[in-house]
Each structure stands twice: as structure tokens, then as C-alpha cells.
Amino acid sequence: MGLYPHIEPYDHGMLDVGDGNHVYWETCGNPHGKPALVLHGGPGSRASPGLRRFFDPAAYRVVLLDQRGAGRSTPSAADHATDMSVNTTAHLMTDLERLRAHLGIERWLVWGISWGSALGLRYAQTHPGVVTELVLTGVTTGSHPEVALLTRGLGKIFPEAFERFVGELPAGERDGNLAAAYNKLLESPDPEVRERAARAWTDWETAITPAPPGSVARFQDPEFRRGFARTVTHYWGNDHFLGEGDDEGVVLRDAHLLKGIPGTLVQGSLDLGNLLGIVWRLRHAWPDAELTVVDEAGHDVEAVGDAALVAATDRYARADA
Which of 45, 114, 117, 143 is catalytic? Predict the structure, then answer.
């Protein structure tokens, strides 16, 4: 079972979501099909055309968007003048509800990758009546322990890259919250400081993410690199704006709120986020979900492949037939 053929949107636009922000959205597939929302990763990435291919275009009305500050949405996080105080998880979930209302959709399947999985989970926990199913890959919940693992814990596995990573920080900032420390550099009034920090941050992400070479080529684009690094450190440095939780984090703590929502979790066996066992704990706390582990695959959707993800969307499309 492979990906569906490439398709183009039949509609798109820019939605005014307030705070001076306009969010890019597009719809493709069948205008009368089952609605499905696609949430990209990062935070700070964008909805790539390849994400449309995980859905049967005859069965689904697929909705993709670039989250605040990302991709084609304006203003861009790459612009130093952009106000990041109005870019939080709560703002993103409000944007999703505004988009759902704008498109006249009552309920939709939510598909998310990486950060998009955390956003999708929290969205379903706070708006359970509008989510029919969840299909998630590169699963993360945005908890503090996950951020600590990805910024400091993996330094023991990638010591040379970690030495370069922390070496870009002022000496007094190397023992605390590394994401927050990098975000300070990325908010510097000096463009050279910002560019150096963006390069160092994305070099670290490249070092710790086993993925096909094409998936990291985006970091060669200076504008994307700046916007991505600024956004991800803004979120990671603030525990993803998810609020107070215990050591496991808010999303895992509130997994019981997903009761009754069918879910499919597709995880690469080599995803380094697995070191904390988050996806397994989530599966056990959410009886309506199933977990598929893809051998010898990492965090990136290209590495995980298409079989399990397409099988899930196909199955959920038939459930409504």
C-alpha cells in the first residue's frame, strides 16, 4: 500500500485569526468527502504538499494549514519584528476552531506529525466533540522531560555535536534551559547573532534526528531556518505553553479525556523520543488507540513510510461509508 498520487488544492486562502495574524489554509480532495485536518510539525515547520498524499482524494476533504508564523502564514516568525507573544498553543487551537467554522466543518479527523501530534492530542482533549479520529506519527506530547531529552539528554549519545551546540551559548547559559537560552539569542537585536544561533540550533536538530537527507535540506534556506529555530525555541523554552502538569506532562496526564476517540499511533522504532516511553504510556492510557511500531525507522515521516498511515486513513474513511 503506497501513497496516493500528488494532488493540488481546489481552494485556499488566508484566514484572519486576529492579533495581526493571517493563517494560510488549503483544501484538496473531495469537497464532499470526510473532513480531515493535517497538523505539521516543528513548531515552525509548514504543511508540505506531500502530506496531502496520505489520504484517498476520492474519500477525504483534506484541510492543511501553516500554523501561526510558519510557511505562508503572515507575519513570518523569520521577521524579527513579529510578535511571538501571540503565538502559543492556546492561540493555535483557537485558530483551528476559527478555520473549522470558516470552512463549515462540524467534525474532522485530525492527522498530526511530531509537534503536530502534541497539538492534535491537546486539541482533541479540549475539543473532543469535533474530533472523529486521530492519526499521529513521530508522537510527542510536548512535556518538559521530552524537551530536556532532546536538548540535553541526547548530548551523551551525540557528544561531539552537543559540544558544538552548547558552545554557541554564553557560559552562564549552558547549565539551564537550553531552548530558552537559544531563544534569547534568536531574539537578539543583532542579526548576526540571530543567524549564528539559528544555524547552530538546526545543526543540532539535524544531528539528533535520523532521517532521509532530503528532510533536512529545508534548513539550508536562511529564512526558513530563522523562522523555524525562533519558533521551536519559543515553544520548547516555555514547555509548549501547555500549562502546569506533573512530571509526565499535561497531555499524558489528561489522556483519559480522549476516551471514545479512535486513534492510530505510528512510531519509528529508532525515534529517539522513544527513550522516555511516552508513546507506550500514551497507548496504555488511551484504550481507544492502537500503536504500530515501524522497524528501523526514525522520527521523520519519510522514514516511517506510508503503509501504516495510509492504512489508517483508509480504514477511517470506510468507517463512515
Answer: 114
